[in-house]
Structure prediction request, 224 residues.
Amino acid sequence: MANDKDFKVKNGVQPTRYVEGLGTVVASTEGYNFSGASYDSVSFSVSGQDADPYGLFFRSDGAKMYVAGDAGNDINEYNLSTPWTVSSASYSQNFSVASQESAPNGVFFKTDGTKMFVVGTATDTVYEYALSSAWDISTSSYSQAFSVSSQENDPQALFFKSDGTKMYVLGSGSDTVYQYSTSVSLTPAQSYYVQTDGTLSTTAGDPSVFAGTAVAATKLIVKG
Prediction:
């Protein structure tokens, strides 16, 4: 005899009921499918913060949204009281990147919210910022930069692989996506220092860092 059971979400399919004996999904939705796409009649204006918005990023839980503003040379942060519903957004704060970039076009965050990356067309560079409080851009501080000018003179957007080992930059100057390796290869027996922003260095540039010795190319022993 068939039994109705709850059916776990898999591959974007979210059925409300599953009839076990018949193997039939009753009433469901399938994500990532444009064939059934329709406008939700939901929107949110960011004109009060920037008249020339470019980049857009959402936190993985949909409760925060970030917009790169070319007019204001900043990143704007919004809170969504209903995750993934932009009409529930409210402006929270902004962080100026004008000291590094006067035309920020793309913004991306590390998965834990402790790093922010901004790419701009004024300098053709990707800038990294460390956030002392995850996802709170008011705690951002400039960390370092990486120029892509040798490949692209008009970078518009960037994206990272989930483990942070690859970076992708889209450029409208050459209509090309460029791929970069963004991992560090550790040399056996080399002494490394873990900086307060989480990066590795072979020199102790910060008095509060931890020292460690790489005993294998992918292993770092950290000493307190």
About this structure: The first strand starts at residue 4 and ends at 5. The two ends are 62 Å apart (CA to CA). Confidence is low (pLDDT under 50) at residues 1-11.
